Amino acid sequence: MTEGIALVVLIGAGLVVISAFTSLIAFRVGTPLLLIFLGVGLLAGEDGPGGIRFEDAGSAYFIGSVALAVILFDSGITTPRRMLRVAAGPATVLATVGVLLTAVVLAVPIHFLLDLPWLEALLLGAIVGSTDAAAVFFLLRVGGIQIRERVRATLEVESASNDPMAIFLTVLLVETIAAGTTTAQDISWNFLSTLSVQFGLGALCGVVFGYLIVQGLNRVRLETGLFPIVIVGLALCVFSITSLLGGSGFLAAYIAGLVMGNMELKGGLAFRRFQEGLTWLAQITMFLVLGLLAAPSEFPAIAWQSVVIGLALMLVARPIAIWLCLMPFGFHRNEATFIAWVGLRGAVSILLAILPLVAGFGSGHTLFNAAFIIVLTSLLVQGWTLRPVAKWLGVVVPPKTGAVDKIELELPGTARHELVVYRIVADSPVVLGERIPRWARPSLIVRDGRSMRVHEAGRLQPGDSVYIFAPPRLTGLLDRLFASKIELSESDLDYFGEFEIDATQSIGNLADAYGFEIVPDEREVSVGDFLRKRLGNPMGRGDRLVVGPVELIVRDIDIDNDRMSIGLAVEPTTASTPRLPLFQSFQEISVALRAWLKRRSFGSTDKETND
């Protein structure tokens, strides 16, 4: 017995370590990390060289569910309030209506290609209906792809919050099929009533428990090392209690994380460091278990059909859902196209595909294998093309200069400071003679690998690393003080415009200078306020607006949106040129409709005149 336990522990720990080290491949070649972890699980499984036979679908679903609760809680914790302000509307619609639309559209090719009944086809559509947060976060954050802020925020919030809807649809359809319910009226009523209860309770429990956890932990004194354990334990309690009450435990875990991540939490710094490692462990464990459960020898029977369904998901179902969901929010066509393409499927889809196996469906293995192949297709096609597609669509933003490192500090009471590190460049304002504010005096300077005190180092020199304690709200001022004067490359000029203009000047003056018309009531409005009115608040770096023959572009904007740098291009840039004749917004459709009606009106008038 002891030898058996030791062997299981050795195999499990060895697979985790192997997965962690193989992640170096993903960082080096840009492979989606999920693909690496799944590959390790498949190689270790019964059809791979590892030969491990694992067929316990129930245990796999239990392990995956706990891991997913931890991952969703972490997704909430790491979502800042600013990102929610930028993307709350479009991301919420995508995470709910978008998942439902994707499942409905995809059910059509599934029904005909896999010869499944309509409800089971809809079930598979729901199983693969959500995007994978781990894959999206890795490719956008770790992969270093700098894209427009609103697009990034929408993708990250959507991928982090759409799992509860996919889980709800899957569980509901599994229960409906198992109960033999077939009438549309019964299915619709069951859908609406269950959705309102699960999401209502999930949201309520997430907000209430998240707030109570923060208030409670801020009033107790625990050892620093115990805080992370207690917080994760309480997060899993929120997940479990909400599920027992009939709500969505996954939604509650995510919202509790959102609430806690945007409140002052004692021990929060130690927790975030612990949580990052725990989340990686949860992801690796879930991916390995799902890889072990799969039997690749069964894939060929439905391989080409599943690949076609995966392509239909990427090229038809998700684009339709994205277009309809984002139409009211004024996204540029290239932005909507990129959001449609970043629809990577992942571990949650494979996890949900276990439910038909647990329920004993005759088509359970077909659904599981098809979902697995669809996920692999998505990761292989979309995961490796993300960067070139982003560049082709012009949503890549030139890197922003700033601190090379920021270290959050755990201070008593309500004091908040960061330790920010800057590397001095030759033409930065401090090298050229500008004084450093008293509140930002350097605490340490590293020159040629040697640490020095400020009085010992003397005048700052290019190449120095400067360590400064500063409150987070003021680090934006330091970014401008220590950064190089902006020298935009030719490609950056194409993206940010040839000139920088004063955001406080009136839009009327700009209209007179460049020969375009402005409504008289708006002539005295500042250029910055004009952009805010047209683009909505909060704006992000890279947002742009074509006005007559010129294009106004947000080059930079601070956290509070009270100062901005605006670029001007004398003609629309390639970044604003639509690459596909798809994904029109309400505004574009209304303009095109008015133009068509105007042409029809002129045509009718000319015909009457000729008569």
Automatic annotation (TrEMBL):
Return the GO cellular component terms, semicolon-separated: plasma membrane
Show the taxonomic lineage. Bacteria, Pseudomonadati, Pseudomonadota, Alphaproteobacteria, Sneathiellales
Q: Which UniProt keywords apply?
A: Antiport, Cell membrane, Ion transport, Membrane, Transmembrane, Transmembrane helix, Transport
Name the chain's protein: K(+)/H(+) antiporter NhaP
Q: Where in the cell is it found?
A: Cell membrane
Q: Which parts pass through the membrane?
A: 7-40, 60-79, 91-112, 118-144, 165-185, 191-214, 226-245, 278-296, 302-326, 338-361, 367-386
Gene3D superfamilies this protein is in? 1.20.1530.20
Q: Name one Pfam family in it.
A: Na_H_Exchanger
Q: Which organism is it from?
A: Oceanibacterium hippocampi
